[in-house]
Amino acid sequence: MGKKKQKKVFLKNRMREIYQPAEDSYFLSDVLKRTINEKNIKVIDVGSGSGIQAETLINMGVNPKDITLIDVNEEVIKYLLPKFNQSKIIQSNLFQNVKSKFDVIIFNPPYLPENKEEPKDSKLATTGGKKGSEIINKFLEQVRKHLNKDGKIILLTSNLTKGINWLDYKKKLIEKKKLFFEELRVWEITQNLTPVILDISEVKVNKSFLFKL
Ligand SMILES: C[S@@+](CC[C@H](N)C(=O)[O-])C[C@H]1O[C@@H](n2cnc3c(N)ncnc32)[C@H](O)[C@@H]1O
């Protein structure tokens, strides 16, 4: 094989590992355009892939310097580095290598239940575990630490994703879209900040405990 041809094959294989924008990507991108009105925000795009969501935000006027892109896939990181040279790009398994907090956290995750026939190179981008929700559930466990007080998470799921553990977050279905084999759903998730009101008149104090003080 000549050198030129060898390089072409390498590039083709590399591109195959990077999730190319599909129906879910375009749907999420459109929802972002309709729901994010603020430009002066610190954003993280988790599982950036081709970078379509970050690109959408930049086109909407968000400062590229306020955008962080993360992905677990090394090939994705190599691809994103020259494309988003003003943004922060981190190779990270979910939030493992992330320290900051954000106003908006976006995630188009691998959400499909495992299909043994799916090729290994596309599995990383599409399969979320046996039920499809395993990566989403890890994300929900970790994300709290990275969300500013009034911040929000924009997360895409599908009716095919089973077993999501929403923990105690507040969630609102922003939009859904029916495709011929699944229904895509985009959620706005926020922290449940309802204060716990303690009625001290109801608290019974044990007198012997008070004497010991
Ligand atoms: C469905 S693709 C979405 C890509 C892009 N955001 C879009 O909307 O087209 C999921 C992306 O998540 C990445 N990913 C999978 N597991 C991850 C993990 N544990 N931590 C970070 N990124 C992950 C994949 O490499 C892939 O790029």
Q: Would you write up a description of this structure?
A:
- This protein is an alpha/beta fold and 213 residues long.
- The protein has a single domain, classed as 3-Layer(aba) Sandwich (Rossmann fold).
- 32% of the residues lie in helices and 23% in strands.
- The chain contains 7 helices and 7 strands, in the order ααβαβαββααβββα.
- It has a 7-stranded mixed sheet with strand order 3-2-1-4-5-7-6, with helices on one face.
- The protein starts with a helix and ends with a helix.
- The N terminus is likely disordered.
CATH fold-level name: Rossmann fold
> Mean pLDDT, as a whole number?
89
What is the CATH superfamily classification?
Vaccinia Virus protein VP39
Distance between the termini: 85 Å
Derived structural class: alpha/beta
Question: How many β-strand runs?
Answer: 7
Largest beta sheet, briefly?
7 strands, mixed
The CATH C-level name is: Alpha Beta
Q: Spell the H/E element sequence.
A: HHEHEHEEHHEEEH
What is the overall silhouette? globular
